[in-house]
Amino acid sequence: MNDSQTATKFDIPLVVNGKTITVHAFPMERLLDVLRVQIGLTGTKEGCGEGECGSCSVLVDGALVNSCLIPVLQASGTHITTIEGLATDKRLHALQQAFLDFGGAQCGICTPGMILAAVHLLSKNPQPTGADIREGLSGNLCRCTGYLQIFEAVADAAVRCRQ
Predict the structure, then answer these.
(1) pLDDT in tens, 18-37
(2) Considering the chain, what is the average pLDDT of its residues?
(3) Number of domains the chain is built from
(4) Residue 21 counted as domain residue
(5) Confidence class of residue 135 from pLDDT cuts 50, 70 and 90?
(6) Which of 111, 116, 154, 163 is at a distance of 20 to 30 A from 135, taking alpha carbons?
(7) What is the strand order of the sheet 79-81 is part of?
(8) Domain limits at 26?
């Protein structure tokens, strides 16, 4: 038996995409796995599982984090935003729409984390320069699309969000 089989599960309160929920999980279970398996929010993707690629990025109390590195107990009582929480009234967030418009997504593994990194960037800097966008997305890797379309999408969304 390993430690996860003998450990006790706990009720852990979370606010995910504006809804208060309680998950029953092992304290050191990855937030990524709880979001995907228990809550069914499969938009958050696992890329590397080591915090290197940013595919699993979510916002926790407004901070951009790699959910593969966060134990769910550490997220107890926090407000978590996933890619599913961005659209409102079945209308895509400006960044989601810009990624579609500019071809900023191909395979889709990096896209949710990339969009949430851009949301985080624009929340801190609503008028980013090209260099700001590159820096703001620097923790997120894309192996398919290339970065030009992604940077263009973020720049366009910044303008859309200000209007």
Answers:
(1) 999 999 999 999 999 999 99
(2) 93
(3) 2
(4) yes
(5) very high
(6) 163
(7) 19-25, 10-16, 79-81, 57-60, 63-66
(8) 7-85
